[in-house]
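Homework-ish question, so no full write-ups if that breaks the rules, but can someone show me the predicted structure for this set?
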Amino acid sequence: MNNTALKPLRSVGRRLLAVSAMAGLMGATLALPGKADTPERGGTLGLSVQLTTASLDPLYGNAAGADRTFLNLYAEQLVFQNGKYDFEPGLAESWEFQNDGKSLLFRLRQGVKFQDGTPFNAAAVKFNFERLMNPSIEHRKRASAELFESVDIIDDYTVRVNFKVRSALSLVRIASAEGSICSPKAIAELGEDFGRRPVCTGPFKMTSWSGNQFIAKRNPDYWQKGTDGKPLPYLDEVQITVQPNSAVRLVELRSGNVQFIDYLLPKDFDQITKNADLALLDTGKGMLEYIAFNVSKPPFNNRDLREAASLAINREALVKVVAPTVGSVLRYVESPEEMWVYDPSVVGHSYNLERAREAFRKSGFNGEVSLMVIQRDPDIQIAQLVQGMFASIGLKMKIEVVERQGFLDKMNSLRHDFLIARMEHNVDPDNLYSQFFDKSGVFNVTGVDRTETTRLVQQARGELDREIRRSLYRQVTDSVLKDYIYSWLIRIPYQAAVSKRLQNISLDANKSLTYDKLWLKK
Amino acid sequence: MIRYIASRLMQMLPVLFLVSVAVFSMTLLLPGDPTLSMLGENASLADRVALRERLGLDLPLPVQYLRWAQNVVEGDFGRSLRNGEPVSEMLLQRVPATTQLAIMAIILAILIGVPCGIIAALNRNSFGDVAATSVGMFAMAMPSFWLAMLLVMMFSIHLRWLPPSGYVPFLRDPMDSLRLMLLPAVTLGTILAGLILRQTRTSMLSVLSADYVRTARAKGMSERRTILRHALRNALIPIVTVVGLQMGALLGGAAITESIFSIPGLGQMVVDGIFNRDFPAVQGAILVIVTSILFLNLVIDIAYSWIDKRVLR
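A: Not a homework solution, just the prediction itself:
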């Protein structure tokens, strides 16, 4: 093994530890009005959230962001990715890259127990990763599992995880849901029911899941200690209700029935800011609205027509109407500002009526185009505004409103002209770049040849240095903007709302709550 | 009577068979792919195809139906495609919630609608009659979503008397359960009360002018006895019909109210199931709803025969 080659990789690990320590010192918690100093113990925290989870088994969730709201209660990983996208020690006290970045050595925390009293150790880690890698288990994290090669037990509290290739995603996967370490005994004994009664090491034990209600009670044997020297968590119980209707979620918060709601609509911000007991919580997460043209068939196999359409859209006007004061123009597959890949220098498609008219004239098109949207807000509202903007250059457009599943069906079989959809940033830029610009990406629904961007995306995935990755993603962005295959529209930030009684709020990289240090002011 | 009930039960079997075929076919013919909600929209095509094969969704429709029907007869409704929960367990949680809501709402509706309808009929064209009829029409016209939000704003946010949402099974904590179910029951009950009030008033008006009522009065029978024993009993059949139909509708169609008040009921199970293409959940829930409605109809028919013996002839 070439030790010189490993030095920078080891230093990456050390840097990450240093960053995490700093984040801890600075307080990764969000500054909220009414932040009290001495944590109080006890109480039940109520949350009303928009989305449910498909399973409480970390390998069977199907929506990273939504799943994490539940997962953070009862499960933990070897490393934790915080809200600034940096890594902190979790069930592992430290880690280092080895074997030219193809292996990660973890030194595990001692004295940790699963919620069923069995010990957490290297054998448990090996069991969980081998379950992830087991091809006969039809779990939903297959794409992640492909990265893993094997797990070696060095001693009771040291393990080495080997990967098939060097990848920037290795540590990300370890910190994701699929990296959760749960009780081997419970997994073996409960079978399919493990998805409803998980047993891991987290601060709370799931005690009930009935329809849209989830209840978790304090894990008295949790390994972390609070500022008072007693075991965390501070709260006795957490109750999560899944309520898809935002108006109802808001009512639940205002009535004091819950202390946290997610996905607050911009029109409701006022109700929170004017209420002395409540506060907005900027999660840093946002809904990115975009148009995707289907270039596999007319009319949008015509580049001039795509250019005309893209330049005819006044994105500032869209922001003013759809998300006034909080929204912003979306220039590209834009990450949150605090993510290392964020690039303020990218210039997106700018509104230019003259150039749009000229491109439209050059396209020679005089028919009608059909824009497919899902039956939901604000997509329909955006579609109607775009329809008016297109009319100003003479482009006729009809709107086809489709129910979600029908939309996906039509989109995947390329039976549309163009569509409005939305996306969200994940914990690593690879998620969106590979889904949109890799030839096998599931959102690559434009019918375009992706050889060059596929190469760049895959190269970026193999690099551990964030600066190199950033420049590769920039090349992808420039290439995509030139083709007018996507037209990025607006970004609408997700705000949560909380009771000011809720203290010590901290979010993970998925922008989901972490519960271990949360407490409620009496 | 026993023969009557047995023959009605026998008639249910072909209806249930036809409903099961219709429900099964319609859910599977919906556009969209359940594997998308199972695996997430980021799943690859190969993974989705493999899952479709494993679930047997690639088999011909009649084969899928026969497999499903055989399992249902054995009491196995399958597992939810969305979260793997056995559908029978989902039903065991949701049927009591929906039944409790329906019963509370219908009792409330009867307690308001029937007396108000009788009073309105007895005082035809008086101020009370006009007021009751107008309030009844207003109640019927109110969207349940709007009324629910008004009630929550009043009783949960301003007065803070009742929780805005949630559900506790009645057997676990009866008082808490009733408290949580009060606002949803009032929401549905108010709307139904308007309907029952209108029906009671119309029914009573038609019997109050009948010869036997006039005869009862001529015989010197007290007004109270005339109304309750003679008029109301004969006016009951259309009222019972309306109550029965509404009870049936409540068992399957209170999805909006269930959703607003976070009640894990059958209506919400059907709606969620349709949006997520969770076929076993939708099929199980609809089958239970249809069966309940069929049984409810039987109960109504028995009630008819108790009210009016001529029905049995």
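Now go work out the reasoning yourself. Hint: Chain B touches chain A through 46 residues (CB under 8 Å).
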